[in-house]
Design goal:
Blueprint: H1 8-12, E1 29-35, E2 40-46, H2 48-51, H3 56-69, H4 73-92, E3 97-99, E4 103-108, E5 114-124, E6 129-136, H5 138-157, H6 169-180, H7 185-195, H8 200-207, H9 211-224, H10 230-239
Antiparallel strand pairs: 1-2, 1-6, 3-5, 4-5, 5-6
Helix pairs in contact: 5-6, 7-9, 8-9
Length: about 240
């Protein structure tokens, strides 16, 4: 039996298409259509209450600026830089539509907790509309933390089950550090540029930030990875498969 052929507009009408088959939306997704010219959402459906904690009415009334205010500031800078460049490239090209790459960012849920979302956009140049999907990836992002804690707990109660009763302290330190490591999108960008040999000024110019901010990002990374200098930062980040 062939799958029903749902059109995009069928989804955003929030009603079944003509064949009468009800479309079931994934509870971890939010779908939206955003009009660039009027700077407002045209459609907004999905698990809005679950994913974001706000009602559809609130988000439609408060608009895009309210949504952006909920995003982590470092992640917001990266998102805005990328999407501005993405939109510019689409408009300069002859294509009518183009998919963005998937971007992950942190956003504050209505409960006050920070959660992770993944964003995928389809930009329609003629209509000046953006079709978007937000996916809740909070569970996936927390898996590393869970496994890190599980390994720590297992090692502390393993006794004779392990080949050695004395696990390598450096390996245990790495697992514990990984489980608690929180690196923003902007810090990831800085980390890769540092590894490529860029100076603070070069990083600032490339990311359109001040040299002072670039230096602070590097200092924060050194602190988070619990190392003494840039060389150790690159070495430790490589062990964590960040580079």
């Amino acid at each position: 039996m062939e799958s029903p052929d749902y059109s995009f507009i069928d989804i955003f009408r929030e009603q079944p298409p003509e064949n009468g088959v009800q479309l079931q939306l994934d509870p971890s997704f939010v779908f939206f259509v955003y009009d660039i010219r009027s700077a407002r959402y045209l459609h907004l459906i999905g698990a809005i209450d679950t994913v974001l904690g706000y009602s559809k009415t609130v988000l439609l009334q408060k608009g895009i600026n309210f949504f952006l205010s909920l995003i982590d500031p470092d992640d917001l800078n990266v998102l805005q830089d990328y999407y501005a460049l993405f939109q510019s490239n689409v408009e300069k090209s002859s294509v009518e539509s183009l998919h963005s790459k998937s971007l992950e960012f942190r956003i504050k849920h209505a409960t006050g907790k920070w959660i992770w979302l993944e964003s995928n956009l389809l930009y329609l140049s003629k209509r000046k509309n953006v079709l978007g999907i937000l996916k809740d990836i909070n569970v996936w992002k927390r898996k590393e933390e869970f496994y890190g804690k599980w390994i720590k707990e297992f090692l502390s109660h393993s006794g004779g089950l392990l080949e050695s009763d004395h696990p390598d302290p450096s390996e245990m330190r790495m697992e514990m550090l990984k489980s608690n490591l929180r690196v923003s999108l902007r810090e990831k960008e800085v980390l890769h540029l540092v590894a490529d040999g860029y100076s603070a000024k070069q990083i600032a110019d490339k990311l359109h930030i001040s040299t002072h901010t670039a230096i602070n990002h590097r200092k924060n990374l050194i602190s988070k990875f619990q190392v003494k200098n840039t060389a150790e930062l690159i070495k430790e980040a490589s062990r964590f498969f960040w580079l």
